[in-house]
Amino acid sequence: MKYICTNCSYVYDESSGDEVEEIEAGTKIDSLDCCPVCLETDGFFQLKEEVIYLDENTVDKVELEHLPDINHDWINIEVTVWNNSHPMEKEHRILSIWLFDEYWDLVEEKFLWIDDDTVVVFDDYDLDEIEIRVRCSKHWIFGKKFELTY
Fold it and tell me: Within its chain, how far is the Cα of 129 from the centroid?
């Protein structure tokens, strides 16, 4: 399983360990006294890799608070999560926002920290279709697809 430190966004994968930090493959998260990068003692959350896709018909409250919206001005793609109202606290926050192209290839990822706004700006890469994915420390990954018009 994969885990992320909510303090510094370090990702730990139990199956591969961490050669740089001298943690053997197979070492369980419970065996670590703290984050090997920032030394935080109680800030790991399990990462789920499944994407929950949202659309304009989304009504579930948990899904709505992760709903990305975009403002595209042909220079930038500005992404706002839930009207910038998602909590940004140690135990519950948006960890990162990803921009994928129409082939589901990762174009760019932005990391967010405690007390950041849930608004990020990506360069316009002349893409016709994009997918925005939002990773929440508490509720996993949410995605929404957009068509861009020029």
Answer: 20
